[in-house]
Amino acid sequence: MKKTTGLVITSFWLVFAFAPAPTVALPPPPPAFYPTLISPTAGQVLHPGEKVRVEWKTSTPTATRYPAWCEIELWLSLDGGRTYTIRITPSMDPNTRFFYWTVPNTPTNAALLDIRFGCEPSYPESYHTQSGSPFVISTASSQSY
Questions:
Q1: ω into residue 121 within 30 of 0, thus cis?
Q2: Is residue 70 within 8 Å of 58, Cβ to Cβ?
Q3: Residue 49 · residue 138 · CB < 8 Å
Q4: Tell me, what's the pLDDT at 39?
């Protein structure tokens, strides 16, 4: 009887030891996100205090909808893309294609935007530096806008 009990207990533990672990299913990956900046354009001069429409297009069809847990953010570099220290948007729906931005008083001849997309925690944030569209933030505000 003692051998039978030991065999049953050992078998019980072996079944659980080699049973497949429950898998945590990740949601399917989101559609690819490859944005291209439309505005501001390369070489455009922006002035502190000016309200500018920042706009981009993506490689995905407009009918594509990203999951609710995905987001985009835009960051500004003042040094040609070496660092991105100024976040210029809150987390936004990745189906967004533009927003209005008030240009800060941060003069530079080498401003670049980075459009970041992510579906965290499942899919890490990807960076999309708009290196083909450097623009200028002038030293003084302009009355012409």
A1: yes
A2: no
A3: no
A4: 97
State pTM to two decimals. 0.75
**Separation of alpha carbons 144 and 77, rounded Å:** 25
User: Which residues lie across from 52 on neighbouring strands?
Assistant: 101
Measure the CA–CA gap between 43 and 72, rounded to whole angstroms: 24
Please identify which residue in the block is written with the tokens 């050992």.
10
CB 86 within 8 A of CB 76: yes
Could you identify the residue written with the tokens 């459009």? 115
Report residue 33 as tokens. Answer: 């996100």
What is the topology classification, in CATH, of domain 34-137?
Immunoglobulin-like (2.60.40)
CA distance 145 to 129: 27
Sequence spans of domains, the chain? 34-137
Which stretches of the chain drop beneath a pLDDT of 50? 145
For residue 39, the number of C-alpha atoms closer than 13 Å in the C-beta half-sphere is 11
